[in-house]
Amino acid sequence: MNMIQALNDAHKVAMRADNDVVVFGEDAGYFGGVFRVTEGLQKEFGKTRAFDAPISENGIAAVAVGMAAYGLKPLIEIQFADYIYPAYDQIVSEVAKMRYRTAGEWTMPMVIRSPYGGGIYGGQTHSQSPESLFTHIAGLKVVVPSNPYDAKGLLLAAVEDPDPVIFFEPKRIYNGPFSGHHDQPVVPWSKAENSEVPEGHYTVPLGKANVVREGEALTVLTYGTMVHVTAAAMEEADVDAEIVDLRTLVPLDIETIEASVKKTGRCLIVHEAPRTSGFGAELSALVTERCFYHLEAPVERVTGWDTPYPHSYEWTYFPGPARIKTALKKVMAD
Amino acid sequence: MSSSETRTNRPALKLHVPEPAYRPGDTPDYSNVTVPAAGEAPRPDSACDDKDTIPLTTHLVRVLDDDGKAVGPWDPKLDVEVLKKIYRDMVTVRIFDDRMYRAQRQGKTSFYMKCTGEEAIATSAAAAMDAEDIHFPTYRQQGLLVSRGYPLVKMMCQIYSNAGDHMKGRQLPIMYSDKEKGFFSISGNLATQFPQAVGWAMASAIKGDSRIAMGWIGDGATAEGDFHAAMTFASVYQAPVILACVNNQWAISSFSGIAGAEQATFASRAVGYGMAGLRVDGNDVLAVYAAVRWAAERARSNNGPTFIEFFTYRAEGHSTSDDPTGYRPKEESEAWPLGDPILRLKQHLVGLGAWDDAQDKALEEETSATVRAAQKEAEKLGVLSEQGDEGKETMFEDVYADMPWHIAEQRDAALKEGE
Hints:
The structure holds 2 protein chains of 2 kinds. By secondary structure, chain A is an alpha/beta fold. Chain A contains 12 helices and 12 strands. In chain A, the strands form 2 sheets. Chain A has a 7-stranded mixed beta sheet with strand order 2-1-3-4-6-5-10, sandwiched between helices. In chain A, strands 7-9-8-11-12 form a 5-stranded mixed beta sheet, with helices on both faces. In chain A, strand 5, helix 7 and strand 6 (165-170) form a beta-alpha-beta unit. In chain A, helix 1 packs parallel to helix 7, helix 8 (225-237) packs across helix 12 (321-333) and helix 9 (254-264) crosses helix 10 (279-291). The mean pLDDT of chain A is 97. The model of chain B has no long low-confidence stretch (mean pLDDT 96). In chain B, the strands form 2 sheets. Chain B has a 5-stranded parallel beta sheet with strand order 1-2-3-7-6, sandwiched between helices. Chain B is 36% helix and 8% strand. In chain B, helix 1 (80-105) crosses helix 11. Chain B is globular. By secondary structure, chain B is α/β, with parallel strands linked by helices. Chain B starts with 79 loop residues before the first helix and ends with a helix. Classes of the chains: A alpha/beta, B alpha/beta.
């Protein structure tokens, strides 16, 4: 399965298991979503469980709050993460704080899915990675899968989680992993690792990172599309890197991070989102606070630039293998 | 095209900034405000086409006439015991408000908001709904809780953020929440609850339930984007919901014209969404009851949502932090043509021979005693100003179902600081 098929399958498994799971979003009903993630759901589960929504992100999030208050489990879609901002008030002020402000009287078990990330010539409003706007909000869990196996298992775990989950899907790798070499043809998931997706129900626990490659030379902390770009860059540089795919940003798997950095003594952080106040800043601070005496070099970050996401300069903006290799040299120099 | 020479013949454009008719120092005069006679508004069947309600969105549904008689097709013909119950609830709300306002002035808590002059709306709406229906209120519908028999002590404990507050002192005073009483958690963020009510109603419809929801909003907050979302979703999915706007003329210091009331009534917003709309005398208990009952019947029969504008007046300041003499005449509330909801219902009850001054005096004394006793009991559990930091570790709970490591670490650090 590719990521889309895995996510679609997760929807079906969740909806078959629990009649309270409802799916809606713009074009998510009859048409099955602009990325086909919700394809076939309306046909199988009917229009009251999988339906199209008006183009109103605040409305979509708000009615999901009301539904969760009733006792349903909304599994909703925001068409692009770049368009989640109208829903920000509902997500930040209502969804995130409901359990806290009512001391558990009302809870918000819901999942807000949204395709995210760049590398697709999406320009300013089809490429953004706004995860740090959500990791900063107490009460939300934030998940970014990097392969079909994790995508399905994490989404099922998110649906079953008692807390609200922001689920960002890197659309660059919907159809296949991406090395960052945009001039090379895309390898489909069928020819890649982690594309074997079990039938039926299984979960990948939230809050647990995945060491995708064990190594001794340095630790790379990353997630989403950049897991693959980083892996390719490390291979090309022939470095024995330990690559940690965080999978869940909040709550963070600090134990895995700490163990890895203490072992390797060096840390590189890679994400697509802009640098300033990006999630990398939090990772860098945590690693510095917790592993200071084990560090043999300053923690480095390879990120998107502090600019809006451009169209024509896609590959200057996107943190590709060349930039990762430059940072790698810096981390390994001392 | 941008050359100014090409535009010399055109008049200069002017920005219209709405201004209330009267400011401090002016003598308010509402003789120009048209108040339709009670009984005049027609009452279509609750299953009618939404378009049949269009005339009602600029009219005013009124039942109690100037003599306190119930007239016209909207008279809900309520049992006198129901009326007395609503009357008691209104009196309770007003006395409660006064005592809590004073408690704030005495420094026992940080903040309070009264609903003086608007008591009829929440108490009568609650009476017209079923106990199992849910409300998504704003901060000025305390009458819903009183009507539904929520203990006054618990309300006060919330206001004092004391040991009796089941929300563990996390919310600002008056941001009540009670699941059992169908009173959704109040948020400081305006209008958010309006589309949430629609979502709850959609859920009820998805599950084939028979319960309905009622969402609440003020005149000022109708300008929020969430208002538009609520109206759109309610109409698109024909959700079993009543969307109520309490138009009390004022959003803190801004008069309703700043929210768009100069050009059109709030009720008329319903028309563009293809939704039934009613404009109702909010100081008339019988009209409020009749309208909510009509809308509830419509929602319950899968005939769609209703938007109701309750026309009323915010008789006092916005909150304990507000002084209305800074932006409107002191005498404005007395000049308000729809009067006081409590006095109007009293007049009606007296007219029915069901009430007299002696009973009224007894009720007031009894209610004052009840509220005082509740306050005493609540204050035994503490008031905000005397609260120490005992139990401060609870402030880290309930962010998530299970406390993640980073919050546990912060809790431990906070506890260590106090040592």
